[in-house]
Structures are given as structure tokens and as C-alpha cells.
């Protein structure tokens, strides 16, 4: 049973006995089951960190799927998925983040919006929803949800 949610076939595989020290730049989908120390980057690619993998690197990719150990920052343009028994020590940043029960995560989590084309009109952190544009005939102070108390 594969935990990978990626629709793409794996184009590169690093086995459990392999080690990379330095920068790993790629396109497509890479599965890492060995050890990587350095930096992992791809403009739109997917990295899959297998259960036996030990990654000591900053990761900047399109999609990150983590089941092993990562020590470093993970940034993804689309999403980050972290499944048990993963251990992540470092900050994570993506528009969509999923952390499974049983994962050990120590760091900061930042949900960033998609690029400007995909952004919604949801309020930003600290922004009052009542200041957002409203539909025709609505008052700014009224809730858009019927029977929702304003004072909550």
C-alpha cells in the first residue's frame, strides 16, 4: 500500500544505502530512501521522503510528501503531506499542509496563499472579515452566514 498521493510516476530513486552530500536539483518526481545532506530543490517537482530516509537539508519543491526524517526547512509551492512515522525538525511552508496523526513535528507551520491567480478573497492573518468586499445590498457588519451571531 503506497502512501504516495502523487499522480506522476517516480522518475528518480535514491535507495536506502545511498548518500548524497550537496545540492539535489530535479524535475519530475524523486523518491528518497537514503541520506541527503545539503539542499533539495525543484521548481515544480515532487519529492517523496521514504520511511527509512534521513534528510538534513532545506527543501524547496512543488510538492513534498514526507514519511521519513527531515531536519531542515520545507517549502512547497503546492502542498506538503506528512505521514506517520515521519519526524520533521524545522519550519514548513505551503498553501496546503496535511500532517497525519502520529507525526513528530517540531517547528513553525506557515500556510501561504497560492500565487495571485489562485488567491481567494479570504481574510489575511489579523485582517477583519467585515472589511472584505460584500455582495450587493449587504452591510459590512452583517455575517454572511444566516443566524450566525455577530458577537462571537
What's the SSE blueprint?
Layout: E1 12-14, E2 19-25, E3 29-32, E4 35-41, E5 46-49, E6 54-66, E7 69-71, E8 74-82, E9 87-89, E10 92-94, E11 96-99, E12 104-106, E13 109-111
Parallel strand pairs: 1-3, 2-4, 3-5, 4-6, 5-6, 6-7, 6-8, 7-9, 8-10, 8-11, 9-12, 10-13
Produce a short descriptive summary:
The chain is an all-beta fold and 152 residues long. It is built from no helices and 13 strands.
What structural class results from the helix and strand content?
Answer: mainly beta
The largest pleated sheet is described as: 13 strands, parallel
Give the H and E element order.
EEEEEEEEEEEEE
Mean pLDDT equals 80
Beginning-to-end CA distance, first to last residue: 44 Å
For the secondary structure, the number of strands is 13
The residue ranges in which pLDDT falls below 50 over 5 or more consecutive positions are: 116-145
Structural notes for this entry:
The chain has 152 residues and is mainly β. It has a domain at 12-114. It is built from no helices and 13 strands. The protein has strands spanning 12-14, 19-25, 29-32, 35-41, 46-49, 54-66, 69-71, 74-82, 87-89, 92-94, 96-99, 104-106, 109-111. It starts with 11 loop residues before the first strand and ends in a 41-residue tail after the last strand. Mean pLDDT is 80; it is low at 116-145.
Comma- or semicolon-separated keywords:
single chain; 152 residues; mainly beta; 13-stranded parallel beta sheet; 13 strands
Amino acid at each position: 500500500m503506497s502512501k504516495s498521493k502523487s499522480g506522476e510516476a517516480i522518475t528518480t530513486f535514491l535507495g536506502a544505502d545511498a548518500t548524497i552530500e550537496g545540492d539535489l536539483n530535479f524535475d519530475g518526481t524523486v523518491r528518497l530512501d537514503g541520506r541527503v545532506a545539503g539542499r533539495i530543490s525543484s521548481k515544480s517537482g515532487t519529492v517523496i521522503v521514504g520511511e527509512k530516509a534521513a534528510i538534513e537539508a532545506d527543501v524547496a519543491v512543488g510538492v513534498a510528501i514526507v514519511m521519513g526524517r527531515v531536519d531542515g526547512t520545507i517549502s512547497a509551492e503546492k502542498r506538503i503531506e506528512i505521514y506517520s512515522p515521519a519526524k520533521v525538525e524545522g519550519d514548513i511552508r505551503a498553501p496546503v499542509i496535511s500532517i497525519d496523526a502520529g507525526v513528530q513535528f517540531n517547528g513553525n507551520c506557515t500556510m501561504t496563499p497560492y500565487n495571485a491567480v489562485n488567491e481567494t478573497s479570504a481574510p489575511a492573518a489579523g485582517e477583519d472579515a467585515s472589511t472584505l468586499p460584500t455582495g450587493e445590498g449587504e452591510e459590512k457588519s452583517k455575517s454572511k452566514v444566516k443566524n450566525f451571531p455577530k458577537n462571537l
